[in-house]
Write a structure and sequence with these properties.
about 20% helix; Nucleoside Triphosphate Pyrophosphohydrolase
């Protein structure tokens, strides 16, 4: 079974009542010319208990005072991008791309909005060295290849987003497509077979039978 289909580092399974997901936002920063597309990935501190060492898109939880509407998610996305990658963006320029809700059987849960943002001209990311310790630009294909080779630790949502992004030849094509789409929530489920847990997406065989929480 592919390791990518399993819960990520620090994701503990919850056999009781589902935890209420915390609101969160993430930014998929894009750069490239008319026929290229690269994304920015940052590496979480390997010492972190949750997702330690994983390469992810910059992002984090919405602060309690920011609310839970679209404006709150955009504000959190802009703030987290500045904190984790040293990049600035305007909330109104972010393009909604997806919304993922952590499976009900996972203890730490997030309801995360993913936004697309074109990298500012001459952007030079900077990580804080504490929460995030490294960054890299990569095409979706190269990032996935590095993940399969064990060079990058990629978790399930990141892998699935990279697979989607790999279907576009340029930043312009991706942004044009995203602006025409309605974002619908995706909530994977955890299927447990003996001692092994794997993640299933809606529409995949076994999803309807997999645990949706107590």
């Amino acid at each position: 079974m592919d390791e990518a289909d399993r819960p990520g580092p620090g994701e503990e399974l919850n056999r009781g009542a589902p935890t209420q997901p915390r609101q969160a936002a993430s930014v998929i920063v894009l750069r490239g010319r008319a026929d290229t597309l690269e994304v920015l990935l940052v590496q979480r501190n390997p010492a972190a208990r949750f997702m330690g060492g994983a390469w992810v898109f910059p992002g984090g939880a919405v602060d309690a005072g920011e609310g839970d509407d679209d404006a709150a998610h955009r504000a959190a996305a802009v703030r987290e991008l500045a904190e984790e990658a040293g990049l600035s963006a305007r909330a109104e320029d972010l393009v909604g791309f997806s919304r993922w809700i952590t499976p009900a059987m996972v203890k730490i849960r997030f309801d995360t909005w993913f936004f697309l943002a074109r990298a500012p001209e001459g952007a030079s990311p900077r990580v804080d060295g504490q929460e995030c310790v490294a960054f890299r630009w990569a095409t979706p294909h190269d990032a996935l290849t590095a993940g399969r080779a064990g060079e990058l630790l990629l978790v399930f949502p990141t892998i699935k987003h990279l697979e989607q992004l790999g279907g576009f030849e340029s930043v312009d094509a991706l942004l044009a497509h995203a602006r025409t789409q309605h974002v619908r929530p995706v909530e994977p489920r955890v299927d447990i077979e003996g001692e092994t847990a794997r993640i299933l997406l809606p529409g995949e065989p076994g999803y309807d039978e997999a645990g949706a929480g107590a």
